[in-house]
């Protein structure tokens, strides 16, 4: 999604029409998507899932005329030789359909959505299910598609939920996805971490980029020695802005080096310094194994996925 769509209204109507046709799609990792794409070869799309999920080129007569007209009006059609491609994907999560970048998400300003989005939202909703204090003000830092912030808004009616990102395309996608989900109280904010926001929060949620990406793509590159730079910055920013009984739910990746977890130690130290109680657990001990072939990970044993919940006592 390197350029914004031309009509939100047309996209809303398109999603409604797809829902009426029982469209659903689970987005996989780029590596899995590439494997499936190779298996499909040059074959054009055979279904709406191929068009809006697998980003396959399609013949115009595959898509019902009403949908094709809405795609044209929304500005999400691109030529692929004699065929067409959709320039967005639509993926299922938490009972909603989310707009995000078509495959492959190679643009610097791509809006990424994948299995980690699902794991992140699951971690946030699990936390909310056990939280006793009300959430009146929350923020999704590096919101991307807005999936986690929208999940919070659905479960905290009346709360103000800021959807924060440095990527204008992400803010546009998050605003549209909030509209598609029918939630109120979400506010897109252009901000580097929390620098463009004011006040304190009952809940900060974040799934920041945590890879070392040579291309420096916004949705992927985390900086630091092993990709942990942005994750630590989120911890430190949240620590300054949490209300009493406020919490940070951070879903991230952590590179394990010679059996040690440098991010865990740095994050727990930052929490202790700020007076926050913290719980840290590995969500998945071994993810993104294909990345270990990159020289940037020459010292890595593995890349773990982890959840940090840090709370300011009330």
UniProtKB/TrEMBL annotation:
This is Release factor glutamine methyltransferase. GO terms for biological process: methylation. It comes from the Bacteria. Signal peptide: none annotated. Residues 135-250 form the Methyltransferase small domain. GO terms for molecular function: nucleic acid binding; protein-glutamine N-methyltransferase activity. Keywords: Methyltransferase, S-adenosyl-L-methionine, Transferase.
């Amino acid at each position: 999604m390197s350029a914004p769509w031309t009509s939100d209204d047309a996209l809303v109507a398109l999603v409604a029409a797809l829902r009426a046709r029982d469209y659903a799609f689970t987005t996989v990792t780029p590596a899995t998507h590439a494997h499936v794409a190779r298996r499909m070869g040059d074959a054009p799309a055979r279904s709406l899932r191929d068009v809006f999920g697998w980003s396959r080129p399609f013949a115009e007569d595959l898509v019902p005329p009403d949908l094709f007209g809405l795609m044209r009006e929304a500005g999400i059609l691109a030529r692929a030789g004699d065929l067409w491609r959709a320039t967005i994907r639509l993926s299922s999560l938490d009972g909603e359909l989310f707009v995000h970048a078509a495959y492959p998400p190679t643009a610097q300003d791509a809006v990424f959505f994948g299995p980690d989005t699902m794991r992140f939202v699951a971690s946030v909703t699990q936390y909310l299910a056990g939280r006793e204090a009300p959430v009146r003000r929350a923020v999704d830092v590096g919101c991307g598609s807005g999936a986690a912030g929208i999940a919070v808004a659905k479960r905290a009616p009346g709360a103000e939920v800021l959807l924060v990102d440095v990527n204008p395309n992400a803010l546009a996608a998050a605003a549209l996805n909030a509209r598609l989900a029918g939630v109120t109280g979400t506010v897109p904010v252009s901000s580097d971490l929390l620098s463009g926001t004011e006040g304190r929060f009952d809940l900060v949620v974040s799934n920041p980029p945590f890879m070392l990406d040579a291309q420096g793509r916004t949705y992927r590159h985390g900086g630091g020695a092993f990709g942990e730079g942005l994750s630590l910055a989120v911890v430190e920013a949240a620590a300054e802005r949490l209300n009493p009984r406020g919490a940070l739910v951070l879903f991230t990746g952590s590179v394990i080096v010679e059996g040690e977890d440098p991010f865990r130690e740095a994050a727990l130290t930052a929490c202790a310094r700020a007076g926050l109680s913290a719980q840290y657990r590995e969500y998945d001990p071994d993810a993104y194994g294909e990345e270990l072939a990159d020289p940037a990970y020459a010292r890595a044993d593995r890349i773990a996925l982890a959840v940090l919940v840090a709370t300011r006592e009330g």
